[in-house]
Each structure stands twice: as structure tokens, then as C-alpha cells.
Amino acid sequence: MTEPATAHIDVGNPRLYREDTWRPHFARLRREDPVHRHADSPYGPYWSVTRYADIMKVELDPGSYSSASELGGIQIADQPQGEELPNFIRMDPPRHTAQRKTVAPIVAPTNLANMEGLIRQRTEAVLDGLPRDEVFDWADRVSTELTAMMLATLFDFPQADRRKLTHWSDVAIANIEAEDAVVKTNEERIAELKRMGETMAVLWQERADQPPKFDLISMMAHSEATKNMSTREFIGNFALLIVGGNDTTRNSMTSGLIAMLENPAEIDKVRADPALMSSLVSEAIRWATPVIHMRRTARRDCELGGKQISAGDKVVMWYVSGNRDEAAIEAPERFVVGRPKARQHLSFGAGIHRCVGDRLAEMQLRILWEELLKRDLRIELAGPPVRLYSNFIRGIRSLPVLIRA
Questions:
Q1: What span, in angstroms and rounded, lies between the C-alpha atoms of 285 and 313?
Q2: Which of 16, 274, 296, 365 gets the highest tally of CB atoms within 10 A of its CB?
Q3: What CATH number does residue 271 fall under?
Q4: For the packed helices 145-155 and 231-244, what is the interaxial angle rounded to 10 degrees?
Q5: Does residue 9 sit within a domain?
Q6: Is 2 a domain residue?
Q7: How many Å apart are CA 290 and CA 245, to the nearest integer?
Q8: Which of 347, 354, 355 is nearest to 323 (CA)?
């Protein structure tokens, strides 16, 4: 039998995302073999799901496609044996439902409205404090700083130590094979995350001994679904909340700025019609696609895209491809403000595992763009972005920019 032309496409290679050269590989898979079996990969055999509709089919069928940590979790790479850190995104119902329900009130509409003024005040201060006629790192000075402050608020964590949260997020998602990885081994990662767990445990005990308050630590300490977690689950859930509250937003803030600078006519649309701001936010998040993939494990034999998936198979949903699917999104390779159904992208996932903080991320981005446009800053790229070596998080480590006085 002749080997298919797509047989040797390896979309799991982290180098594709560091070099930002992934697009043609996924375009070919979507066109020629949208549910593609990689029989031999560094991660073992797995299925690549590359079209929007097929990804949604997997997302909306958690009974057939499991996220459970004990079956492998949510990443293409299996968790090292004995080092699993279960958390509610790596669970199926009913445990997933109960734990997610515990933290959901922090991002309820009423609380978001209460936080808007604080977010705007901080955004104004950060933007007004940026240097003029001097190269600086937007990813650090703006994206990371704003998300670190927000994370510290959500946890009621000391603001003076907020960059510890950013560090732990970087540790949790690090690809240990990267030259610039913050940790070089899984043992080092676990040791760092244990230190994070010890820090959170002190705050946890303080909150548990007090009446319930409206922060994530207090909510979890007082909830029947989370107050008696094992040590590994405790560490896993805090790592999840830190990464989830950090990476989608900070990387959209940086990638979104690049898109805005490269597409000034689209930003002019928003200047002319501020009602398009929500569309700009959604398009920036689609464009960024900060989570490159999510993995599931088939619980039973299934049919997907004309292929037979067997129980136990690893199924990888490539959000970065679904968000560029020509069959679902018109002109997906263009950054377009005002496109129909702009919010129906895959960057937040879908179904029971849709990002619980999606509305908070959108609000943070909206406020940043509003304040940027209000100031009419003359921002220029001063060099190429340095991208993360990862097939899981499409991150930007640094972005040199210049603001003309």
C-alpha cells in the first residue's frame, strides 16, 4: 500500500511553534487527512483532529473522549508515571463539575463588574508608566505585569510577590527540552510546584480558619468538593488556576498587539465605531490561539471524520488549526474586525471544559485596547518576538517595542 503524503507531517514538534511555521502543515492535513493518525511520534501513536467541526464533536462528547488524568490527561505528552498532578480540567464529570463549580463564582458577571474599575486603574498606570523613545519588552512590562496583578487579586495573594505566580505558571507549562526552559527536568518542575503548594497551603489554612471570603483560596478551602484534596490534587488545581488565569490573557495581549500593528486599517474600524471593540477582542484571541492543543483519550470505539478511533487511543484537538479552518471561518488567515460570530473561536475550548475565566480574559483585553486607543500611542515593533518552545502553549516570551514620544 502506498504511504499517504501526510504520513510524515509532525505537528507535535515544538519547533514549529517557536519558529511560527506551523500553518502550511495544518492546511495540508485539513485538506488531505483532517483526522490523521500519527503511528510513530515522540509521544506515541495519536490522532490529530484539525478541522473545526471535528474538534467540536470531540469537545462536546466527554462521555466518549475523556480528560481524566489517570487515562493520560489533556496534553499530547503523557504525564510521567508517578508524577501526575490531577486537577479539575483533567477530570470527567461528576468530580470535574463539582470542582469547577467551586471556583466559577469568582468570574460571575456581578464580580466582573465589581473588578472593572480596578483593572482599568491598573491598566492606566501601566501604560502611563511606559518609557518613550526607548526599547522595552511589551510582554514583560504590559502583558505579564497586568496578568500577574490580576492573578494576585483573584487569589488575594500578596501583590508584592505577584511575579512568583508568573514564575510558577512558566514552570508548570515549561518544555524541559527547551534551551531556555525555566526548569530542566520533571523532578525540578515537581520540586518548584511543591514550593508553590507550600506557599498556598499557608494561605489556605489562614482562609480555612476565617469566615468564607470572595477569593479563590477561600472558596476552595470552604467547599466540600475541594477542601479535602490530596497533596497532588491540591498542587495540580493551583497550577491549573495559575496557568489558566495567566497564559491565555498575557499571550493574547502580546500577540494581539502584533496583529494590531500589522493591521492598522482594522484598528481604524474600531476608532470609527467603538461598538466593534468586542469583535476586536475576540479576533485577537482567535488570532493568538494561546492554547495550541488539548488531548483526550477515547473511552470507547468511535467514528470521527470517517476514521475509526479505538478505545484507549490518544486524540489531539489542534485548536490552532481549527481556528484557521476555511470551512468554518471565512478568510481565517486574515485578521478581521467585525467578522460574523467572532466569539465562536476555539481558543477557550468548548463544552464542559470551556475556559471558566473566558469573560474575565475578554474584559482585561477590552480594557487594555480601550486605554491604548484612548492614548493613541505610536507603538513600533523594535525586533521579532521570541516565542515559546512548546506544542501546548503558543506563548511569546518577549516582544521588543518602542513608543515614539
A1: 30
A2: 296
A3: 1.10.630.10
A4: 140
A5: no
A6: no
A7: 12
A8: 347
Total count of domains within the chain: 1
Domain residue limits at 110? 33-404
Q: Burial level of 220, CB count in 10 A (0-12/13-18/19+)?
A: buried
Q: Per the structure block, which three cell numbers stand in for 177?
A: 527540552
Please report, to the nearest 10 degrees, the dihedral formed by the alpha carbons of residues 198, 241, 253, 190 taken in order: 50
* Cβ neighbours of 14 (radius 10 Å): 18
7 within a domain of the structure (yes/no): no
Q: Rounded CA gap, 295 and 298, in Å?
A: 10
Cell of 116: 472593572
Residue 12 forms beta bridges with which residues? none
- DSSP per residue over 314-365, as a string? EEEEEHHHHTT-TTTSSSTTS--TT-TTTT--STT--GGGS-TTHHHHHHHH
User: Which positions ≥6 away from 28 have C-beta within 8 Å?
Assistant: 5, 6, 9
- Taking the C-alpha atoms of residue 7 and residue 4, their distance in angstroms, rounded to an integer, is 5
Rounded Cα gap, residues 193 and 183, in angstroms: 11
Residue 12 lies in a domain: no
CA neighbor of 259 nearest in space, from 86, 141, 392, 399: 399
Q: How many residues does the chain have?
A: 405
How would DSSP label each residue in 8-34?
A: T--TT-THHHHTT--HHHHHHHHHH-S
Give the model confidence (pLDDT) of 200-232 as tens digits: 999 999 999 999 998 999 999 999 999 999 998
pLDDT tens digits, 53-109: 999 999 999 999 999 988 999 999 987 766 668 888 888 899 889 889 998 898 899
